[in-house]
Amino acid sequence: MNSDMEQRIDALDLPHRTREDLKASLADRDVTEEQFEQILEMIFSEYQKSRIEPCEAVGVVAAQSIGEPGTQMTMRTFHYAGVAEINVTLGLPRLIEIMDARREPSTPTMAVHLLDDWAFNRDRAREVSWQIEAAPLHEFGDITIDMENMQVLVMLNKAVCDRRKISIDEILEAAPRKIREKRHFRDFDVEGDPKSVSLTFTPKNRESYQNLFQLAEHVRQVIVQGIDDIERVVVRKEGGEYILYTEGSNLRGVFEVEGVDTSRTRSNNISEIADVLGIEAGRNAIIQEALSTLNEQGIGVDVRHIMLVADMMCMEGEVKQIGRHGIAGEKESVLSRAAFEVTVNHLLDAAIANEVDELNGVTENVIVGQPIQLGTGDVKLIAKPINLKIQEKS
Amino acid sequence: MGTSLDVLKHEMVPDHQIMDEEEVAELLATYHISLEQLPKIYHDDPAVKAIGSELGDVIRIVRESRTAGRAEAYRLVVKRPKK
């Protein structure tokens, strides 16, 4: 093959991959001009055959292609992702979750990739995980309730703090601030002593024991290190590099942490991805999550069907669910909406608002008993009687 | 602190390009559609902000397609509706 042919292939109206495949298979072959023409002709006719025809009901085909294998999925599965023992929802519940575009999945999780300086050393990977995993104050020292003086005493453990790479001052500052801001509990005074590495909390109401115990609970549970939503981090080695798997998801928070690779880290929370990385990343996330959920159950669904669903969900610039609060609920036609769910409400609202149904869609026309605009139903043919007469004569 | 986030560098974010007026006119002519019939993208979408696009622009998105290898998609920048 010569470079002229390569240029001609590039100029063809074919998908990128088809052109690349063609170039690759012709690369070290001698083809005459005549053969080349013939090859192109064959490819064009094959490509035309493989294309979806106009008026084909792709949406119905996609719905059936995902729906039928869906009946074979396990109704309720929990899966432990390998040795990491991180619980993730899979199977049908997960698929429903994706299609419903929930704000928060039932088991949010992230795969945090690390930059080169951190990814190949277990200790350094662990250091990053300390910055991510939410650690309550009681992990850093002993907390005792002094009932005689009505106080809560915190004795920090210097060794633990050093190991976790957090300074005493940071804890002394963060603990009272976080109790006020995140736990919305303000009725206390605090005294920190950096020398004896201790904190003393005194409730404002010094009469009530209930109040004292409440304060002690807040002190115990306040998160002083890490990102609030991330309950657990597991370090795993995969393909030579260390990856952090988390229980809980907070992409924005994790991207701030030093050592995190902001180009590969991902979450299973689709709406979070759409918020942080944009709608196109959200579309990719839907495709990946749906495909991996189906494949994990040994179900092979063609990616085209899932791509169509993802495209529909991301059409308007945000992730919309497939259902009455999303795509199905925003259809133009009253009858079409009424045919889906909550029939009476839609009909009643339409009657009150004096809505008109143009009968453009499929569902409406099935309801009123007209030919639908799909396949042959969309083609308007008029047979001219002149032609018929000519046939009769001959 | 940390490495700064560049949305466009993330592997899940495809290439976003702002189209000039001629390209938009050509696009609309080939598909026989009006501007409003294009899929939308919000003006405060992180990727839109990263390329510095404005309301009314059309963005060409070059996706790594699983079927075609590379595919182009187009979105019109619109204002996020108030809830």
TrEMBL record, chain A:
One of its GO terms (biological process) is DNA-templated transcription. One of its GO terms (molecular function) is DNA binding. Coiled coil: none annotated. It catalyses: RNA(n) + a ribonucleoside 5'-triphosphate = RNA(n+1) + diphosphate. It is an enzyme of class 2 (transferase). Its EC number is 2.7.7.6. GO terms for cellular component: cytoplasm; DNA-directed RNA polymerase complex. It is found in: Cytoplasm. Pfam families: RNA_pol_Rpb1_5 (PF04998). Keywords: Cytoplasm, DNA-binding, DNA-directed RNA polymerase, Nucleotidyltransferase, Transcription, Transferase. InterPro entries: DNA-dir_RpoC_beta_prime, RNA_pol_Rpb1_5, RPO1C. Belongs to the RNA polymerase beta' chain family. Part of the RNA polymerase complex. PANTHER family: DNA-DIRECTED RNA POLYMERASE, DNA-DIRECTED RNA POLYMERASE III SUBUNIT RPC1. DNA-dependent RNA polymerase (RNAP) catalyzes the transcription of DNA into RNA using the four ribonucleoside triphosphates as substrates. Forms part of the jaw domain. This is DNA-directed RNA polymerase subunit Rpo1C.
From TrEMBL, chain B:
This is DNA-directed RNA polymerase subunit Rpo5. SUPFAM superfamilies: RPB5-like RNA polymerase subunit (SSF55287). It comes from Methanoculleus formosensis. It catalyses: RNA(n) + a ribonucleoside 5'-triphosphate = RNA(n+1) + diphosphate. GO terms for molecular function: DNA binding; DNA-directed RNA polymerase activity. Belongs to the archaeal Rpo5/eukaryotic RPB5 RNA polymerase subunit family. Part of the RNA polymerase complex. Residues 6-77 form the RNA polymerase subunit H/Rpb5 C-terminal domain. It is found in: Cytoplasm. DNA-dependent RNA polymerase (RNAP) catalyzes the transcription of DNA into RNA using the four ribonucleoside triphosphates as substrates. GO terms for biological process: transcription by RNA polymerase II; transcription elongation by RNA polymerase I; tRNA transcription by RNA polymerase III. It comes from the Archaea. Its EC number is 2.7.7.6. Pfam families: RNA_pol_Rpb5_C. InterPro entries: Arch_Rpo5/euc_Rpb5, RNA_pol_subH/Rpb5_C, RPB5-like_sf. Keywords: Cytoplasm, DNA-directed RNA polymerase, Nucleotidyltransferase, Transcription, Transferase. One of its GO terms (cellular component) is cytoplasm.
